[in-house]
């Protein structure tokens, strides 16, 4: 049974590596099962043992990634809102670093808008919780939109770098940016 599990994990990992490689230059709708399986030297029948089609594979990979992401986002108790670089932000960047290649192509020009929107939604949920618990008087809707767009932009830039900074450095950089923004948020008129 363990051998089977290992083989399944290895097959899925190869397929994922191939999908990431293909998404660097192709939109998902332009990738066929035949091309993917030829690239990774796996029989098409083996692909269909795991996935219905390329879209099913992408959906399942995203779901698995977001399960892990949600666990990270929920690990810090609500009563302790913090932007410290050794807490949630650090775990967020460590998560992205573990999934760097996949996250890079998903956010990139041939990526998946669903992935980006799910990422934004998770950041928004956490940001709203932070703003509410910090009892900020700022207009939540605009400030939250600004923070989400900024966070995704920082992540996108970091993922594209040939020699990226460490997750620890990025957590500190983004944490400082967020603290400055929240500190200088204008009071409503």
Automatic annotation (TrEMBL):
Residues of the HTH tetR-type domain: 9-69
Keywords noted in UniProt: DNA-binding
Record's keyword annotation contains Hydrolase: no
Entry-linked Pfam families: TetR_C_8
Keyword DNA-binding found: yes
GO molecular function: DNA binding
Highest taxon listed in the record's lineage: Bacteria
DNA-binding region: 32-51
Entries under InterPro entries matching the protein: Homeodomain-like_sf (IPR009057), HTH-type_Tx_Regulator (IPR050624), HTH_TetR (IPR001647), TetR_C_Firmicutes (IPR039532)
Record's protein name: TetR/AcrR family transcriptional regulator
Organism listed in the record: Simiaoa sunii
Lineage: Bacteria, Bacillati, Bacillota, Clostridia, Lachnospirales
